[in-house]
Amino acid sequence: MRGSGTIINALAIVIGGVLGILFKRFLKERYQDTIIKATGFSVVFLGAAGTLSKILTVRPDGTLSTGGSMVMILSLALGALLGELIDLDAQFERFGEWLKHKTGSDGDFMNRNLTRSVIV
């Protein structure tokens, strides 16, 4: 089924979020931070691996060839420019403040959950 990966990913995020809320009190903050860093690193690694698997290919004669690297560079540059033009960072900050107000949480809530949202 087309789009099933997106549905599974969304469900995994929801289930992980619920489990995180339920078991948060059992983990020290130090462990929580380590888990967040490990998750972030794995997301970066998986993204790089997925990108490089399409850019770097091994030819039948055993040599390495590259392709599509300019598309990646242009995509990153245009994405960064667009993010700056619409001030995406400030938008996330406002969204975090809104969430903080709606949930009645402290400022630490915004930092953790926005980091998780952006990473995942």
Automatic annotation (TrEMBL):
Parts of the chain that traverse the membrane: 6-23, 35-56, 68-86
Keywords tagged on the record: Membrane, Transmembrane, Transmembrane helix
Domain of life: Bacteria
InterPro entries on file: DUF554
Protein name: DUF554 family protein
Lineage, broadest ranks: Bacteria, Bacillati, Bacillota, Clostridia, Eubacteriales
